[in-house]
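Usage example:
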Amino acid sequence: MKPLLRKLAVLLAVAMIPASVSAWVFWQQGKWSVFRDDTVPLSEVAQWKNRVLWVDARPAADFASGHIPGAVRLTEEEWEELLPELLNAWGPDCAVVVYCSSRKCQASGEVARRLREQVGLKAVSVLRGGWEDWKGGRR
Amino acid sequence: MRSLLFPIASALLLAEFAAASHAQQLRWESEEVNLTPIPTDAEAVAHFKFKNVGAQEAQITAVNSRCSCTTPTLEKKRFTPGESGEVKVVFTIGSKTGLQEKTVTVENNDPKRPYTTLRIKVAIPEVVQLRPTFLYWSPSEPLTPKETSIKIMNGFPAKVVTVESSNTLISTRVETVKPGQEYRLIVMPGETVQPAVAKLTIKTDYPPENPKTFFVHVRVDARK
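Running the assembly step on the lines above writes:
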């Protein structure tokens, strides 16, 4: 029995080498961005007492076919054209939550980063699951 | 018999990996491309080359991008065994800065790997960094000056040429912190009880062919 266990342990150890390399490569490539810490689920946003300013980071056609009530659009492609409307709607008491199409899209993360780093807004989050989660009735 | 367990298991694992790696029809030279445009570039272009290494004709059924900033193009859709092709992705830089990561999904008729995600990473050099680009005075705040930091990045020979305010109630002046490197934009709201907004246009002289312009937004809420 013992030799068999030893062989299994060796097999496991061998398997750990490519697994570790793979994990390191994925980490370097940022493919684990799903674990980014600025995302919030809809259930959490629903409990906030502050006014929420929804920011839609999707293309105009997607926004036109449906969006969260009261949301303003802002995309990196139309940054300077759309930013004034957001800044007019913003207030020091409100929390900004940016969303895009789904869990896989990246636009909301980029827009949120620029709102924090460049514009200087403080409370900016990304809606986990984006429009898909909202539409799916998980609010 | 037991002594054969390890080599057999290892051989089976290796065979499975080998089979998996050869199962796909399209073999990509690289599924990720890193681009480093220069400040004068309006766009960055990535070329994703592939080869049909399968025994059947490969058909690319769709090439989709999630961002309107990336335009993928494909010269043809059907590729005979051994034939090579390329997906060209044009990334429009616009006002973007920093590291941008975008993906393009290629759909094909290979049941073992019907989707391939191509990734482009674009490191866009920032010529001028303004922080913050929004200055706000709340109703209870005194109307004292606020400032935005202007930094010339990466040693670019850029200079701030002019600063224009869209609202005469909001005036500005530029102070030098480090010549050629760092400036301070002082913004002064006029004495008013009415709300006011302004767009400040900061013009530079770099790059000479197409000098970059930056903006700072100002909002003063009505006084209590």
